[in-house]
């Protein structure tokens, strides 16, 4: 037993759980935690300029490191501000641990109008967290911290939430610290695995569709071993990019298109082996096609495709079992498969329908200027959308997007968290000018802490998608353009490096040069409005009345 304050108990519990980095924004209800962090040399505190950035940074750290990302904010408005990062982490099954303050114990739920008071505060995070807890005494803190981190990493990883009032952080009592959480894997049902084996063996045109669950389970090596043994072609979701190298002959890459070679490949298959993915394709496969679905979360299975064989359990264990019990692919058949895939990839690379300009030229140039192991954070902008299918990815956990959450402004602070986790790895952030301005103040954070990433700002002076869709489909844009700062001067004013890229041909040299500079680098890339990407619908969403929208 130790005589500790709630803040001290929290910090010492985090240390025991292996936490080394905490992202946060100090405030009056958090002083007990701040003081404890100050006195704990084994944890590094990174302070952001806005609460929104705290959870984005924690998410980036978690997804690139495979470890929990910890953040803290003040109650009420601090939690609202942090909600964007939590929603992205929830969408991408990321183990983010948000710690929030509360108002004084005796006033919780009284509606007295205290500083930062929000009634039913835990309801704010309820839809975007897996587990929640309020602790009112220091002695409760170790068990709550222990359980929060266990929940964040067990089963399907997702954000968790803990709150405590300010007096709990400074009051002292006898506290029992706990040993680190041990996460036991969920063992898949043997009978389900045997049924999966049977169906895979009798299939003639199987294909693997893999998502981000592989990365969240740290099962990338097991997955690659399995693929190379069975010789089944692989298509990845955006979240699955990097779980198998795009240089692997069995990888067909990724696509969000509702048409084209990859979509046709899926439609011709008689069995889809869906691994670590919700498998919510835009156009469902045929009813007769069987989906053999491997995932740790049973709730994602069978939502869209009823003809689904469910295998619930740890992906490492499931892949190991299937790999050991499926026959190795015949070498002649493997050569035939690889030759077929080369033809498909060649047709994709030569197809005008798959490419858009200037996105293609810009993205290829950035890729050429970066080493294979570089990590890309793809923002909600034209380059980001295009990258989901066309950014070659060669290593696990080196492609990060916002998933179905689709948060504008997420990419820059998320990239900061990625770079903190991987300081020796080149990190490049693709962000639009609109999204960048959400968190441009975090240039200060990058400079203060030496977070030396490269940020490419796709600068069209507007919310470009909105302007184009309004012009094309609604008779003219309205207030979607704006006044930007000079991004080069803005970066330089903080002590960072600002560079302006005038042509697409320059960006590979600029990005290569940027990696040699011992400062955060911001590349302003002025562009004109681009046409709607060819893989998208020819009309903006909801242009025409939809069945079922109006009762």
What does this molecule look like?
This protein has 551 residues and is of the alpha/beta class. The protein folds into three domains: 2-175, 3-Layer(aba) Sandwich (Rossmann fold); 190-352, Rossmann fold, CATH 3.40.50; 355-526, Thiamin diphosphate (ThDP)-binding fold, Pyr/PP domains (Rossmann fold, 3-Layer(aba) Sandwich), CATH 3.40.50. It is built from 21 helices and 20 strands. A six-stranded parallel beta sheet has the order 3-2-4-5-7-6, sandwiched between helices. It has a six-stranded parallel beta sheet with strand order 11-10-9-12-13-14, sandwiched between helices. It has a six-stranded parallel beta sheet with strand order 16-15-17-18-20-19, sandwiched between helices. β2, α2 (31-38) and β3 form a beta-alpha-beta unit. α14 (359-368) runs parallel beside α21. The model has no long low-confidence stretch (mean pLDDT 90).
Helix content estimate: 25-40%
Strand-residue proportion: 15-25%
Give the oligomer, counting copies of the same chain as homo and different chains as hetero.
single chain
User: What is the arithmetic mean of pLDDT?
Assistant: 90
How many domains? The number is 3
Q: Structural class of the secondary elements? A: alpha/beta
Question: What is the tally of helical segments?
Answer: 21
> Given the C-alpha coordinates, what overall shape results?
globular
Please outline the major beta sheet. 6 strands, parallel
User: What's the architecture of the largest domain in CATH terms?
Assistant: 3-Layer(aba) Sandwich
What is the CATH top level name of the largest domain?
Alpha Beta
Strand order of the largest sheet: 3-2-4-5-7-6
Rg: 24 Å
The CA-CA distance between the termini, in Å, is: 62 Å
The CATH H-level homologous superfamily of the largest domain:
Thiamin diphosphate (ThDP)-binding fold, Pyr/PP domains
Low-confidence stretches: none
Number of strands: 20
- CATH fold category name of the largest domain: Rossmann fold
């Amino acid at each position: 037993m130790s005589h500790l304050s709630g803040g001290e108990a929290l910090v010492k519990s985090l240390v025991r759980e292996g936490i080394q980095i905490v992202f946060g924004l100090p405030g009056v209800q958090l002083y007990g935690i701040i003081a404890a962090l100050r006195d704990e040399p084994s944890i590094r505190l990174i302070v952001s300029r806005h609460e929104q950035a705290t959870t984005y940074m924690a998410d980036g750290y978690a997804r690139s490191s495979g470890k929990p990302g910890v953040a803290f904010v003040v109650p009420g408005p601090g939690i609202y501000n942090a909600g964007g990062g939590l929603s992205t982490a929830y969408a991408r099954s990321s183990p983010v641990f948000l710690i929030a303050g509360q108002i004084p114990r005796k006033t919780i739920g009284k509606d007295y109008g205290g500083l930062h008071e929000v009634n039913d505060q835990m309801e704010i995070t309820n839809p975007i967290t897996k587990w929640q807890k309020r602790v009112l005494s220091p002695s409760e803190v170790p068990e709550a911290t222990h359980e929060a981190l266990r929940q964040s990493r067990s089963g399907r990883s997702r954000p968790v939430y803990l709150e405590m009032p300010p007096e709990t952080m400074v009051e002292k009592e006898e506290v029992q610290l706990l040993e680190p959480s041990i996460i036991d894997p969920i063992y898949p049902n043997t009978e389900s695995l045997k049924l999966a084996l049977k169906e895979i063996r009798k299939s003639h045109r199987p294909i693997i569709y893999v998502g981000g669950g592989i990365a969240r389970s740290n099962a990338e090596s097991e997955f690659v071993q399995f693929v190379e043994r069975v010789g089944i072609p692989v298509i990845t979701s955006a979240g699955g990019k990097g779980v198998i190298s795009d240089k692997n002959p069995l990888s067909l890459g990724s696509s969000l298109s509702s048409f084209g070679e990859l979509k046709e490949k899926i439609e011709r298959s008689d069995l889809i082996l869906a691994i670590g993915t919700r498998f919510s394709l835009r156009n469902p496969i045929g009813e007769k096609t069987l989906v053999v679905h491997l995932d740790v979360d049973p709730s994602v299975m069978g939502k869209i495709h009823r003809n689904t064989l469910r295998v619930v359990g740890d992906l490492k264990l499931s892949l190991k079992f299937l790999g050991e019990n499926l026959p190795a692919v015949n070498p002649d058949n493997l050569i035939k498969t690889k030759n077929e895939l080369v033809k498909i990839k060649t047709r994709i690379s030569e197809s005008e329908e798959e490419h858009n300009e200037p996105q293609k030229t810009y993205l290829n140039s950035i890729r050429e200027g970066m080493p294979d192991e570089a990590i890309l954070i793809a923002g909600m902008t034209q380059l980001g959308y295009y990258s989901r299918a066309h950014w070659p990815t060669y290593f696990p956990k080196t492609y990060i997007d916002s998933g179905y959450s689709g948060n504008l402004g997420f990419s820059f602070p998320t990239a900061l968290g990625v770079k903190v986790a991987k300081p020796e790895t080149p990190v490049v952030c693709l962000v639009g000018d609109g999204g960048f301005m959400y968190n441009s103040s975090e240039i200060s954070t990058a400079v203060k802490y030496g977070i030396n990433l490269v940020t490419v700002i796709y600068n069209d002076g507007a919310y470009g998608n909105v302007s184009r869709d309004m012009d094309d489909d609604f008779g003219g844009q309205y207030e979607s353009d704006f006044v930007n700062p000079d991004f080069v001067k803005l970066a330089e004013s903080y002590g960072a490096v600002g560079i302006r890229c005038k042509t697409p041909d320059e960006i590979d040299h600029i990005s290569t040069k940027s990696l040699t500079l011992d400062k955060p680098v911001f590349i302003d890339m002025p562009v004109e409005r681009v046409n709607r990407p060819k893989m998208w619908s020819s009309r903006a969403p909801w242009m025409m009345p939809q069945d079922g929208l109006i009762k």
